[in-house]
C-alpha cells in the first residue's frame, strides 16, 4: 500500500492536526487568561494607587482643618472678634503668616455673619480676591465644622470653616473663621510623588460657573474607565458625596506598565513547543507500532485472495500479539469464512430450485433474481438489477389484481399475499402462463421495511 493511499498517512495527519489544534487552542487560552490576569492585576494596582492618592488628598484637607481649629481655639482670635484691632492682623493674620501655613486665604466672621477681616491671594483670572467667592458667610452657618470646595473657572479651593472660641473651647462661639487652600498643580505633584505615579484632578465645571459644595458625607469613588495602552494605564474616576450629588471633578491617575513583548512570549513558548514535538514523536511511534502496522498487516493478509477465490485460500495470520487489532483479525477471519460458506450454500440451493424467485427493495425495484427466473424471462440477471418489477409482467385476468398490485399491498401492509393468476411476460406478450404467486414482505427488526420476496411457480 502506497503512502498517499495508506490509513497510516491519514491517522498521522489527523493526529498531527489534532495535536497542533490542541496546542493552538491551549496556547490561545493561556495567553488570553494571562493577559486578563495581567489586566486584572494592573486594574487592582490602579485602584490601590487611587485609594492612596485620595487618602493623601484627604490628608491635605485634614491639615487645613487642623490649621483652622488652631486659629478658632485661640484667645487672640476670640478677642479680635470682640474687639477688632490692626495689631493682631499684622502679627498673625497677614499674608506672610498665611504663606507659612501654605494657605491662600482667610476670613473672619462675627456671630451675625458679618465679615470682620478678609485676606487672600489675588485671582488674575477673575480679576478679584479669592475671598470674594464667599458671600459673607451665609453658606458657612449651622454645623460647628464645615468642609467643602469651591469650583471656579478651572480652579479648586478647599475650605474649612470653624466656630471661634477660647483656648479651652469652653466659651460660647462669637464668630467663625474660614481658611482655604487651592488644590493646585503643586499639590498634585506632591501627591504624585507620594504614590510614585501621576495623579491629577480635572475641574469639569463650566468655564463661567462657580460651584460651592459643602461636604456632609464621605467621598464615594466610582470608576469611569480604565484605558490600557502599550506602556501606560490611564484610570478615570468620579467622586460622589451621595447618590444624587456628584462633584464636578474627575480624578485621573496614570501608571506605567510593562509593555507586551513577543520575545518574552517566545521564551515561554519554545520549551512547550519542544516538549510537544517530543511527545508527538513518541506518540506517532506508538501509533505506528500498535495500530497502523497491524492494520497494514491485516490488509495485506486480506489481499491474499479476491472475491473469485475460496476463503480457504487465506493463509493463517499471526494476530495474538496485536491486541484489539488481533481480535479484529481473528473475528474477521471467522465471519468471512462463515459468510462465504453460507453464500456458497445459498447459491447451490437457489440454483437447484425451479421456482422463480425475485426480491425487490422498498420501492419495488428488483435487487435479486435466481438463475431459474432469469432463464425463464430470457434476460440476463444483471440487466434486471434495479428494474421496476411491475414492468416485467402484465395480468391477463381483468377481475384479478396484478402481481404488482399484490407487491405494493405487501409493502404497504407488511402482510403476505398469495394466489393464482394468468400473466404475460412483457418479453413474450403472445404467451400466457398460469402461475401460483406468493408475495412476502422482508422487514428489518420486524418494523422497518426492507422490501419483499416474490415466488412464482408454473401450474400448467
Structure report:
The protein is α+β, with helices and mostly antiparallel strands. 41% of the residues lie in helices and 29% in strands. The chain has 10 helices and 18 strands. It has a 6-stranded antiparallel β-sheet with strand order 2-1-7-6-5-9. A 6-stranded antiparallel β-sheet has the order 14-13-18-17-16-15. β10 (220-228) and β11 (232-240) form a beta hairpin. α1 (7-72) packs across α5 (185-195) and α1 (7-72) packs antiparallel against α6 (262-302).
Mean pLDDT over the residues:
79
Which bin fits the share of residues in helices? 40-55%
Major beta sheet summary? 6 strands, antiparallel
Structural class: alpha+beta
In terms of DSSP E residues, the strand content is: 25-35%
C-alpha Rg (nearest Å):
51 Å
Could you say which overall geometry the principal axes of the C-alpha atoms support?
Answer: elongated
**Distance, first to last CA:** 58 Å
Which regions are unreliable across 5 or more consecutive residues at pLDDT < 50? 307-313
How many helices? Answer: 10
Number of strands: 18
* Helix and strand pattern: HHHHEEEEEEEHEEEEEHHEEHHEHEEE
Strand arrangement within the widest β-sheet reads 2-1-7-6-5-9
